[in-house]
Amino acid sequence: MTAEPAKPAKLSRQAIRIALWALPLAALGNIVFFLWALDGRPLSSIAERPWLLGLAAGLAFVPWITNVLRLAIWCRFLGVPLQLKQIVRIILGTVIANSVTPTATGGTVIKWGFLVNEGVSADKAGTLISTQIAEDTIVMLSLLAFALFFAFGFELPSTLRELDWVGARASTAQALLFLVAIVLIAGMVFSIARRGWFGARIGGLAQRAAARTGELCRNIVSDWKTVFRGGKSVVMASMALSAVQWGARYSVATAIIGFAGGAMLPLLYWALQWLTFTFSTVVPTPGGIGGSEAAFLLLYAPFVSPDTLGPVMVIWRLMLFYVPTGLAALIFLGMRGRVSARPV
Question: Is 292 inside any structural domain?
């Protein structure tokens, strides 16, 4: 039992090493682009509302707090004895690992590994992850519908209301269809393997994996029944924190654009942030490097002046990705060592 959780720990240390040398290089590339875009002008030349830069910095770290609180709430409700230090380490470790893996990999699998590494059983870790996925899906769809309705109804300038957004919708649909295709192909290959088409040994492994997955799903369903019986207040509290989390994260761009003197269209910019991160999932680079920057420049070009678009993009990327990830790596290094954790 003690040797099995060592793999996630090794992964986290490797992720930190990669993050500490690779991310500064990527950030340096952004800074070079920033200086080129300024074309010799001082930063003060675009600083129309300096106080909004401080607001953007604060908003960028709100997800750390909400993620810690949400995990702590669910751990207490499900009887998972994780200490606050362990919860913080899980959240920071997930931030770091996400930065050195392609965006499409997904943070849920990574967080599951860190939960198991801290002594949480696979079943309970699956339940904790499934609650977050369900909450985030409901909150994101609700916020997106709200943002699009008010953005197109009130915020979007009249000259752009007839803008053809078919290309953006098509790109999003292609990304989702690609993901569905991968899942279907993987399921088909797994089903064939269970029938022994790839040999008895692989067939046996596939059958054991299927049995373990079935047991895991049954335990998750049982935990969800417990939630529905007595955890409605827990769900509401966690979903409220989720709304704060995504509202803050996707509002960083609005604050930075306002800092540079751009029009303040918070709901429209929030929806464009969702599109930006959706596009970045199809770019097979760590943390969506390159894809996120390109998507931002493309989607925000109609609303930000050409003179400030490049610098705004770099400030946004530094505040929302490079700086938080670098701080997470440094804090994680300072929290090394294992708090007494046991399987539950």
Answer: yes
